[in-house]
Every structure is written in structure tokens, then in C-alpha cells.
Amino acid sequence: MKSPARKHYEQVTAAKAAGAATPGQQQAGEQYELHAAALYDATRTLKSIKSIQAKIEKKRELLPDFLPYVEGVLSEGNGAKDDVLMTMMVWCIDVGDFEKALAIGAYAVKHNIDTPDRYARDTVSILAEEIAEGVKSAWPRKMPTPMRSPTSWPAPPPSWITTICTMRSKPSCTRPTLRPARRRRY
Q1: DSSP for the chain, written as a single string
Q2: Closest CA to 93 of 50, 63, 73, 116
Q3: Cα 177 to Cα 55, 147, 149, 174, 180, distances in angstroms
Q4: Rounded Cα distance, 123 and 102, in Å
């Protein structure tokens, strides 16, 4: 476990390096290199774990070591390509910290940062699909009693909805209009 002074040092130095980085280029700096090496070791450890639940618990255990770096990059970053940051976004989704994942995702979408090569999908697809799956799995397994309206189901916090809506390329986040059904000729 890191001391508060060490966490602050990591956050400040990561913020300085992210602020000085060239947008679109690979992130550099001491903290990035240290966290990239720590991420490499963490992924090697995760590959040796067979159970998905055990991997999630291990990520939950390892994630706090990376959060000061993430906070530093989010506070002063200019949009440099950062594999550590994008991997932390996926880890936050995996452990259920959707608010942190959306904060990282909003930064990534704003600066057009792609996910690392090992992920087959782009940033917006990962955010939309994985967070939707996480929210869906967090809802009760049993459906509400028959004849109850969907308004009685728990809803995600408004901050998630507004963040996802602002990530869309369309200016507004509205439901599609329904068209009347066509008449079939027999």
C-alpha cells in the first residue's frame, strides 16, 4: 500500500508529464514508464489466474495502485496516447466502478484516444457495451411482478446517461421515432 505522500507525488508528476505531452503521440515520462511496467507485471499475474471472478478480485486489489496516475492524467492531460489509462478504463468497468470508467472514457473520446491493440473494439463501443452489460447484471435477476411497469425497476444514475449521451456523435440523445407497420399484401 502506498503512502498518501507517494500517491500525491505520482498524481502531480503524471499531471505534469501529461500536460507536456504532444496530443496524439505516445505518452512519455517517468510515471508512465513505471506504471506501464507495473501494468505488464499485473497482466502477467492475471494471465496465471484461471477464474474470471478471481481475476476481477485481483484487478480490484491492483486498481488503487494506478488511480493516482489516472487522476493526474485526467486533470492535466492533452490527449497523448496512453495504454495504461485505457487499460484502467477497462479494469474499472470490470470491477464495477462505472463512474471512474466514464470519466476516463469521456477524456478518451474528447481527445480521440484509441484503446490498446489487444482490444478489438474502439473506445466508445467498449464503454457502451460493457457498461450496459454491467448495469444489466447489477439489476435484479427476477423480473418484477407481472403487470408492474418498467418505471418500478431501478434506473442508472443520471450522470451515466448524460455522459453516454454526450459521447454520441448526434447532438441529442433521443429515442428513435416509431414508424407505423407496413401492410402486407397477401
Answers
A1: ---HHHHHHHHHHHHHHHHHSPTTSBP-SHHHHHHHHHHHHHHHHHHT---HHHHHHHHHHHHHHHHHHHHHHHHH----B-HHHHHHHHHHHHHT-HHHHHHHHHHHHHTTPPPPTT-SS-HHHHHHHHHHHHHHHHS-SSPPPTT--GGGS----HHHHHHHHHHSSSSS--PPPPPPPPPPP-
A2: 63
A3: 42, 25, 21, 9, 10
A4: 11
User: CA 172 from chain center: how many Å?
Assistant: 22
Predicted TM-score of the model (pTM): 0.70
Interval 96-121: pLDDT, tens: 888 899 899 998 888 888 888 778 88
